[in-house]
Amino acid sequence: MIERVLVAMDGSDLSERALRYALDGHPDAEITVLNVVGGASPMMGQAAGIALSDDEEGGIREAAEPVFERAREIADEYDTAIETIVEAGRPARQIIDHAEEFDVVVLGTHSGSLADRLLVGNVAKTVFQRSPVPVTVVR
Question: What are the chain's domains?
Answer without folding.
Answer: 4-138 (3.40.50.620)
